[in-house]
Amino acid sequence: MDPLLEVKDLEIVLELKERSVYAVNSVSFDVRQGETIGLVGESGSGKSMTCRSILNLLPGTKSKTVKGSVQFEGRDLLTLPKQEWQQVRGKQIGMILQDPTSSLDPVYRVGDQIVDTLRTHQKMSKKEAWERAIKLLQQVGIPSPEKRVSQYPHELSGGMRQRVMIALAISCNPKLLLADEPTTALDVTVQDQVLRLLKQLQRELGMGILLVTHNLGIVAEMCDRVVVLYAGKVMEIASVEQLFAAPKNMYTKGLIRSVPQLDSTGRLEGIPGSLPRMNQPLAGCPFRERCSLATEECADAEKTRLQEVSPGHWSACVHHERMCGF
Amino acid sequence: MDIGRLQYAVKHIVSLVPVLLGISIITFFMIRLIPGDPAQILLGPRANPETVQRVTERMGLDQPLLNQYLIYMQNLFQGNMGDSIIIQQPVLTLIGERLDVTLFLVIYTTILSVLISVPIAMWSAVRKDSLLDNGFRAASITGLSMPSFWIGILLMLLLSIKVKLFPVSGYGNTFTEHLRHLFLPALTISFSLTPVLIRPLRTKIITILSAEFVEAARARGIKESQVMIKHVLRNAVLGTVTILGVNVGWLLGGSVIVETVFSVPGLGQLLISSILTRDYPVIQGLVLVFAALVIVVNLLTDILYTILDPRVKLE
């Protein structure tokens, strides 16, 4: 089956005043229909930027270069002319942002914002759109939607607002949903409800989901496959089972180890060191300075290329064979 | 208008009374501190002292100050601001005849300034730190630092004498004539009002441009023009409304000078001439009217704000 979304050799360089930042380095992965892909990494790993570049939403004020391709349904989104963006954004690809308190316009009623979105993409009377807005709110599990639809965002709780954001994102039945840390700003109990809602909607609508997160717990619960990013480079791509059973990259291993476990008695392990400065093009493995297995080969760009180590399991680590379990 | 807003309005209109009382006390005694005797000015420098004395007595200006104030207040509470010493007409009539002119000028200036500021602020914000943005900033400072009487005279020279586009002075009789006659005065005041509006509006737009709800709207495929007007501008305007409200007092002050430069028969011109002739009752009446206007406009701003921003509730 053809993938729904195929990101290939994506490179993003931000030109700041004094220096360039190589934020995303030759990132490739795909999302298939009805599948949930987790895009995992720590802050600054380029995961949000990758996600935003799919909808061409990178901040416009900084000058930047974007290379590579993002194929969606046979079209390269990166070279799409401006007018055609409207058809993709919101209609075929929906997006949920991190903070539901600031992603709704405070001066419009919830219903108005849904109606606007619906009427941008579909021929609909205001009244029809309003009815549909109520249905959508119902679909995302908001109680008494007839009342909520004419309330302002500040009158709703955080979880409720994120549900509204989800309603907005799925209003035109998109094929792909980009969720950029959709639950980070929410209470743990609400997090769970929102994730379950996403799963349920995915089953109903058959959409692919690209879930950006730094939370491996969410990945384990939600995703089919995982893309691990570090310093703007893909370190590993694997199914959730493969990843948690036998990670083939030291960075992934470190990530999994640094998740607190309820039954463990030992100290929580972190990863020593911090992200490298990303002010020059990447050569070799960006993790080698923090890695216990590092050798000279790790600085070799060719050898640290992403390679298939077992069916469906890709790793960028030279020493993937030296890793077996924990 | 809902009950909350009505209550708020009533409460604030009631609180207007002590404020106006205070202002009446201050103006009453302050103008009497200014050297110059109304009777003397009325009669001219060569009048003989007995006549001056007689006129002073007739106007009640020989009485103790406190008595004068009490008589003034007694009349004021009966809706009588007294008669002008010089023009010999009731102050209320004088003000009533000119109030609409000044209000026209103030509203005209406000609309003109908003029409100029909004596009410039938008442009500067979107093209932040571009040549144009810096150009507008320099122009703003220049506009702000030039005295309005000078700008007025320059505009008059340029647009009504060199190029005969607008009348030199006056008010005209019909609405369209008012628009034509008051264009230059309004533009003159706008020169110093627009910079005050553009700067905060530009900053606000820049902040809102990076707000998540703007990104979210774009991600939903909302047209860029719609995003700019419905989301960015609509939210940026909130703070600007307050700035406009606060500046109305200052706008009235500006109109005083500009009305004089362009011979516009409004309250400002009346104020200048009454100060020059020490026409105490007219000055007192005008200051009260100006103060009331400022307070009422601020009240309206507060109410408008609650309509524009659903998060704000009046207490």
From TrEMBL, chain A:
UniProt KW keywords: ATP-binding, Cell membrane, Membrane, Nucleotide-binding, Transport
A molecular function (GO) term: ATP binding
Main location: membrane
Compartment(s) where it occurs, according to its Swiss-Prot or TrEMBL record: Cell membrane
Its membrane topology: Peripheral membrane protein
Pfam families named among the record's database cross-references: ABC_tran, oligo_HPY
Signal peptide: none
GO cellular component entries: plasma membrane
Gene3D superfamilies hit by this protein: P-loop containing nucleotide triphosphate hydrolases
Domain of life (superkingdom): Bacteria
PROSITE patterns attached to this UniProt entry: ABC_TRANSPORTER_1, ABC_TRANSPORTER_2
Transmembrane residue ranges: none
Domain ABC transporter residues, every copy: 5-256
GO biological process: peptide transport
Family, per entry: Belongs to the ABC transporter superfamily.
Full protein name: Peptide ABC transporter substrate-binding protein
Lineage of source species: Bacteria, Bacillati, Bacillota, Bacilli, Bacillales
TrEMBL record, chain B:
A Gene Ontology term for the protein's cellular component: plasma membrane
Transmembrane segment boundaries: 12-34, 101-126, 138-161, 181-198, 236-262, 282-308
Keywords: Cell membrane, Membrane, Transmembrane, Transmembrane helix, Transport
Membrane association type: Multi-pass membrane protein
Domain of life: Bacteria
GO biological processes: transmembrane transport
Subcellular location: Cell membrane
Stored SUPFAM superfamilies: MetI-like (SSF161098)
Residue stretches making up the ABC transmembrane type-1 domain: 99-301
Pfam families: BPD_transp_1 (PF00528), BPD_transp_1_N (PF19300)
Family: Belongs to the binding-protein-dependent transport system permease family.
Record's protein name: ABC transporter permease
